[in-house]
Write a structure and sequence with these properties.
alpha/beta; about 15% strand; globular; disordered C terminus
Length: about 325
């Protein structure tokens, strides 16, 4: 290479090209990471700037705002002001708890054409490009104790679904409700997972709350990796798993959702799911990546008539939003 990493970060030289992978991590314009990338682009003024991501839209058109600002800056264009951008490209609803009284979500109909007309957007289907095996989805509904898990919030499941679909929050109680539901699901989930484990296949179990993950680990008698697991121990457990020394792993969405390979398994179980489709997809792709030889079976364990169904609803909506933006242009003959 004409320059080293040190030259790029600390030197005075400009660079010919700058390629940023996992670009969805700079979707928040006020985050330190986003500001650092913006400063890097301003300082180095690359002739070629490429953002690569499988999930450019997480919640709304605003997720692409920092990237478009950087691209406009390199072309000498003044960036669109954030208020004008939101009003033009995002759906919105009143929310008295936000700075300007509005909450923004989704994309207006003109956003997709705007991006395609003004920027070089290339979309490729990962499964086709990498020739990966199929993903197979299965939902298993489980019964829980006769609790609504929504009593504290005074909301029905349908009301929660509507709030989540509109891009809004549901109040401070939802976090504790999710935790209670996760703990309630452990017994039924363990029974189902043990039936699979008896057949001898490798598997991964995904969850969110520390107490839920620990209980799953104890009941299944397999290791757990959370944010509290040291890097050395994490790498050791992953290596043992990939070498078939461990049959199963319980994984935290936050700690294991990116940057690791778990291709020894071709079956995964969702005991708790994230709200964000991008996080869901990243976790699935720990198994569904280069090196995987088998079709991936993704099993969702859903508690009927609970918050689980609300989360399913919002994930379906955000997957639809993602799919509508990322067209399979290879099938339309575009570049």
């Amino acid at each position: 290479f004409p320059v080293t990493i040190g030259d790029i970060l600390y030197g005075d030289k400009n660079v010919g090209a700058l390629i940023l992978d996992e670009a969805h991590y700079i979707r928040n314009k006020t985050a330190s990471r986003t500001k650092a990338v913006l400063n890097l682009v301003k300082a180095k003024r690359p002739n070629f700037l490429w953002f690569a991501t499988a999930t450019p839209i997480v919640k709304s058109a605003e997720n692409l705002y920092p990237m478009l600002v950087m691209l406009d800056g390199l072309k000498g264009k003044a960036p669109v002001r954030i208020k004008e951008y939101r009003d033009k490209f995002c759906l919105r609803k009143a929310n008295r708890f936000t700075y300007d009284g509005w909450e923004y979500y989704g994309c207006t109909e003109i956003f997709n054409p705007y991006v395609r007309q003004n920027y070089n957007l290339i979309t490729l289907d990962k499964e086709e490009v990498l020739n990966l095996p199929d993903k197979v989805y299965e939902t298993i509904y489980i019964d829980t104790a006769p609790k609504t898990y929504l009593q504290k919030s005074n909301l029905t499941v349908d009301e929660v679904v509507k709030k989540l679909e509109d891009g809004g929050g549901t109040g401070d109680h939802i976090a504790s409700i999710r935790r209670e539901l996760g703990l309630e699901k452990v017994a039924s989930s363990v029974s189902i997972i043990k039936d699979f484990a008896e057949m001898g296949g490798s598997y991964v179990v995904w969850g969110h709350h520390r107490e839920v993950l620990q209980q799953l680990s104890t009941e299944l008698n397999i290791p757990v990796i959370t944010g509290e697991t040291s890097l050395k121990e994490r790498d050791s457990l992953i290596a043992k798993f990939q070498n078939k020394e461990i049959q199963g792993l319980v994984c935290s969405i936050g700690a294991m959702g990116v940057g690791v390979t778990l291709t020894q398994a071709s079956t995964m179980f969702w005991v708790e799911k994230p709200y964000l489709y991008s996080e869901l997809k990243q976790c699935e792709d720990r198994l569904h990546r280069i090196g995987q030889k088998n079709s991936i079976k993704i099993i969702s364990l859903i508690a009927k008539k609970t918050l689980d169904e609300a989360i399913q609803g919002v994930l379906h909506l955000r997957k639809k939003l993602h799919s509508e933006f990322i067209l399979k242009e290879t099938k339309h003959g575009q570049n």
